[in-house]
User: Fold these one by one.
Assistant:
Number 1:
Amino acid sequence: MARTLHIGVLALLAAAAADRRLPVLSLRGGASSIRYQSGRSAVEPSRALVPAEPEMSNAERVFVVQQFERPAVRKAFMQKVYSTVTVQLLLTTAIIALLRASPLMAVQLMSRLGLGMVFLPLLPLVALQYMPNQRQASSPLAYLLLGLFTAFEALSIGSVTAGMSTALLLRAAATTAAATGGLTLYALTTRRDVSASGGLLSGGMWALFVLGGFQMLFGGDWMITVRLAAGVALYMGYLVVNTQMMMGGKKKRQIRPNEHLLAAATLYTDIVSLFMHLATIMDRDER
């Protein structure tokens, strides 16, 4: 149950950190600034939650696009993103290793926090999401929130995977690393623009939610297998789309150059979500 809920929360994190709320620029058919965009339709968050921001002027839009098209700016942005993701993954690995070295700690965390353990990562992520000024300025508070999100997520993963063998987790990590490397290389080299596929992925995310609900209510091994396989395909798609959104080059959708923290949270969530699905599949195969 905890593992199923954790995978569901990872889906929530991916939706929160990815295309449903990423600050993006729509560059084709007229460059328009979309502060928050959904794969289904443009969504304006409640004014009570998000302060209204002035519309960007045409000159400012052009300036932002031109800045991101500069190789030096794009390279610096991607270096910041991938260095941040690397630190996140190293921190996650260290926390998981600590929990595996102290099994009693994982048991105590799950017994005291219960299902709250799998929802803890949402709190700092939502806070980071709704603090655009702090996030874009890379303030210490923004880094603190990102660190808390990573630590909570690592604690959750470590607790949920405590019953899996170390060899299995290493195989899942190696498979995830190979898939991430291959998909990143494809996203960086292909001429095909897939950055506008967020709507399709959002539909797949909702289908995954519904399937997970049916599986929790009615059970069935075949339904679990389908859900896990669909989850792997979904997060592989998110990795390609979210990577292309960082590239610039007049993609249909792309992230602002000063949003490297949210971009890092997005890629990190994609990677750990893919890892959890692969680890669960391998764990089922070993039973």
Number 2:
Amino acid sequence: MDLSKTLGSISAYFFRKPAYRRPNIGDDLRQIVQSEDFENKTKATAPFLVAGILAWPIYWIYRGTEWHKYHVLSGQNHGAADTYDRYYVFLKIKLINYTYTKD
């Protein structure tokens, strides 16, 4: 009886299903970030990382200010100023046509 109990516990140990362990992504990430290899590579690429992080926001802020600088003042806002500019151009064209076709 003692031998069968021992064999049963041994077979249960070797043929058991492994318990499902949920992946711990935070712990895995911590191990990667705190590794010496990661720190060395981060120190080597720090200027490029900072430039990359700042590049897109600065670029889009510049694009936004540039767009408003030229488009609002030139009548591209489709408001009253735009209508006035179109009417002014229309009158200029009419005047030019009138002066050339007056003969």
Number 3:
Amino acid sequence: QEVFAADGAGASLEEIARRAEVGSATLHRHFPTRRSLLEVVFHDRVEALCARAREHAGRSAPGDALIAWLRDLNIYAAASRGLAS
């Protein structure tokens, strides 16, 4: 996630493997295409965003929860900007 956030969707898969401390072949075995890796990254990030929504809903008034979640969404969108390319 960090490499994609810094370098965008075209991030070097070799750099991703290096940062994950795995070999390039291992990365390709688990994620045969760049798209398959990006899908997992997006899924994990959306799951985290949904978890934040549940946290806010459980401890705040509805309006306050929505405002807090919209802040989280804004942070997510800014951090994901490079992945849209």
